[in-house]
């Protein structure tokens, strides 16, 4: 039921790194009930300068999905994000830009 939402968020790029939010591992969970989508996400660091851009991009992208009328974003700090959450595709994308993970 949430596969299309995960796919939609895989189109949202981190504004500071050449990798999408799903592969970066900052999306912790997505739940959908009726027209409301709840997203649990974190940032790679507290005080992330791109946090508002990311929140806006997540909300905007999910609202384009059929049947989504409301998006609620829950910031999650536990467990803290680590580079271990980056998928292999994300690691490959970062390495192609010369960033080691």
Give me the secondary-structure topology:
Layout: H1 3-9, H2 21-24, E1 27-33, E2 36-41, H3 51-63, E3 70-75, H4 88-96
Parallel strand pairs: 2-3
Antiparallel strand pairs: 1-2
Count of DSSP strands: 3
CATH topology name, in short, is: GMP Synthetase, Chain A, domain 3
Q: Strand order across the biggest sheet?
A: 1-2-3
What's the pLDDT, averaged over the residues?
Answer: 93
How much of the sequence lies in strands comes to 15-25%
Poorly predicted segments: none
Distance between the termini: 32 Å
Helix percent reads 25-40%
Shape: globular
Total count of helical runs of at least 4 residues: 4
Structural class call reads alpha+beta
Q: How would you sum up this structure in a few lines?
A:
The protein is α+β, with helices and mostly antiparallel strands.
Walk me through the structure.
The chain is of the alpha+beta class and 101 residues long. It has a single domain, classed as Fe-S cluster assembly (FSCA) (GMP Synthetase, Chain A, domain 3), CATH 3.30.300.130. It is built from four helices and three strands; from the N terminus they run H-H-E-E-H-E-H. A three-stranded mixed β-sheet has the order 1-2-3. Strand 1 and strand 2 form a beta hairpin. The termini are far apart. The mean pLDDT is 93.
């Amino acid at each position: 039921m949430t596969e299309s939402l995960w796919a939609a968020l895989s189109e949202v790029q981190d504004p500071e790194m050449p990798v999408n939010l799903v592969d970066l591992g900052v999306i912790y969970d997505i739940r959908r009930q009726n027209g409301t989508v709840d997203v649990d996400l974190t940032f790679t660091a507290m005080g992330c300068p791109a946090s508002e851009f990311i929140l806006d991009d997540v909300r905007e992208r999910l609202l384009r999905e059929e049947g989504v009328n409301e998006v609620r974003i829950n910031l999650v700090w536990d467990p803290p994000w680590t580079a271990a959450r980056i998928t292999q595709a994300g690691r490959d994308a970062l390495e192609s830009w010369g960033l080691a993970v």
